Amino acid sequence: MSKSIYILYISIAGNTQSFVDDLEDYAEQQHQLDANNPLIVKKEITDQTDFESETDPYFAFVPTYLDGGNGIDNGVKELMTNVLGEYIAYKDNRKLCLGVIGSGNRNFNEQYCLTARRYASDYGFEMIDDYELRGNSTDCKRIYENMAGRI
Predict the structure, then answer these.
(1) Buried b (16+ CB within 10 A) or exposed e, 115-131
(2) Which of 44, 46, 75, 98 has its CA 20 to 30 A from that of 8?
(3) Alpha-carbon distances, residue 90 vs 45, 50, 103 (angstroms)
(4) pLDDT number for residue 71
(5) CB-side neighbour CA atoms (13 Å) of 115
(6) Per-residue confidence (pLDDT) for residue 1, from 0 to 100
(7) Is 101:59 a contact under the CB 8 Å cutoff?
(8) pLDDT in tens for each of the 151 residues of the chain?
(9) Which residues contact 26 (CB under 8 A, 6 or more apart)?
(10) CA-wise closest residue to 64 among 22, 6, 111, 31
(11) How far from 85 is each of 3, 23, 25, 62, 97, CA to CA, in Å?
(12) Residue 111: CA atoms inside 13 Å, Cβ hemisphere, count?
């Protein structure tokens, strides 16, 4: 039996949910080809989530929603995704994070994946990958392989 890839994520506009769902489907296909390929276990974090101590290593998926500005010297106030950061910071949860995957819109230049970069810096783990908006099949393959190689 293969190990699973455990994912914590937050989805505001549905883009992250869509990508994680696609990633889950891709993992299932890969697992059907070879039972050693890990499946995805996912957990959405919302404002209604009761905080708990995680017991398994996980990857975090976070989109970027900021309060305007340029993302460098102004406009770095995180909006709507704060609860995931708070969940990661809860007790020892940050110690189990194997890395963060960011998403966003490349049109926002320096703000692209800024929340993921900030989580990596603030909580002491690596930003291991990124994808734009809802991602695509190439992103799924690359990110799946990246995560599978780290478990």
Answers:
(1) bbbbbbeebebebbbbb
(2) 75
(3) 13, 11, 23
(4) 59
(5) 26
(6) 42
(7) yes
(8) 468 999 999 998 888 999 999 999 999 999 999 999 999 999 999 999 999 999 999 999 998 766 666 656 665 655 567 899 999 999 999 999 999 999 877 666 667 668 888 899 999 999 999 988 889 999 999 999 999 999 9
(9) 137, 140, 141, 144
(10) 111
(11) 25, 22, 26, 9, 12
(12) 20
- Please check whether residue 102 is in contact with residue 62, taking contact to mean a CB–CB distance below 8 angstroms: yes
Phi, psi (deg, nearest 5) at residue 118? -70, -40
Tokens representing residue 99 in the block: 């890395």
Which two three-digit tokens encode residue 68?
A: 């305007």
Q: Which three-class secondary structure string do you get for the chain? A: CCCCEEEEECCCCCHHHHHHHHHHHHHHHHHHHCCCCCCEEEEECCCCCCCCCCCCCEEEEEECCECCCCCCCCCCCECCCHHHHHHHHCCCHHHHEEEEEEEECHHHHHHCCHHHHHHHHHHCCCEEEEEECCCCHHHHHHHHHHHHCCC
Residue 128: per-residue pLDDT:
96
